[in-house]
Amino acid sequence: VGKIIDTVETVSGLRKKVTAWRRSSEKVVLVPTMGALHEGHLSLVETAKNVGDRTVVSIFVNPTQFAPNEDFDSYPRDHQRDLQKLAALDVDLVFMPARSEVYPDDFSTRVIVSGLSEGLCGASRPHFFGGVATVVAKLFNQCRPDAAIFGEKDYQQLLVIRRMARDLDMNVEVLGGSIVREADGVAMSSRNAYLSADERAKAPELFRTISNMADNLARGAAIGTQIEAGRTRLEEAGFRVDYLEVRDGETLSPVTRSARPPARVFGAAFLGKTRLIDNVPVPALS
Ligand code: AMP
User: Is 81 exposed, middle or buried (0-12, 13-18, 19+ CB in 10 A)?
Assistant: First the structure.
């Protein structure tokens, strides 16, 4: 209460602020979000403050990453509370553009990162990473940050953005932030708000299942068997499994023989209409 936070709604307003900071050699770090902020987002902001001099948070529910049948209209929006949370963290600037500021009527460009975007979430949401890469490319061009932070909760997204920045010479350092979880292990997500009480009670089983798989894999268990067992366990707990896979944490290539670090277990599963995703590293043998 009482803290004032600086907000801008236009690209020109954003540029004016950031240009002044860059002129005085301050390191600018961007944290892109879709709002409905929780502790996961706020931990990225803390990291941004630690690695840079100025922190910019963007809040924009990006229509191009939602398919027509997805939850764009019902996606939670709460600007007032978001701004209070960011003010408490002393964020330097919040960029909250209107849709028309980002996508004029004749907008015609799409950024596609092939390969990395194709499996996992890209298989069931084929439009998704094109929308994400496009809006993040725009944010990078609008803000020209020195670095940007993305959560490992959306691990594939982090790698897609890192590759895009490298491939297109964007000169933005793309950093990952570790996953923030509720006390029962559920990865924090704005979409958890969609869960009924009954679904929320079932939700921890996703993290438990992939963690258990990762531990078994570290001890040498066969990948195929672990995936089958994990799938059965999730189905018995009331999930509809979208995918359950073991992939390399750097390249996202499927891991088929022995799962060693940096292998990770990736899971996506529905509880009712809500799709939850999570991932964990396969631990090193101690
Ligand atoms: P979103 O608003 O869902 O698009 O997320 C914005 C950023 O916050 C993305 O980089 C996400 O990966 C990150 N994020 C979301 N949930 C978490 C979490 N539980 N822990 C860490 N980062 C997260």
Answer: exposed
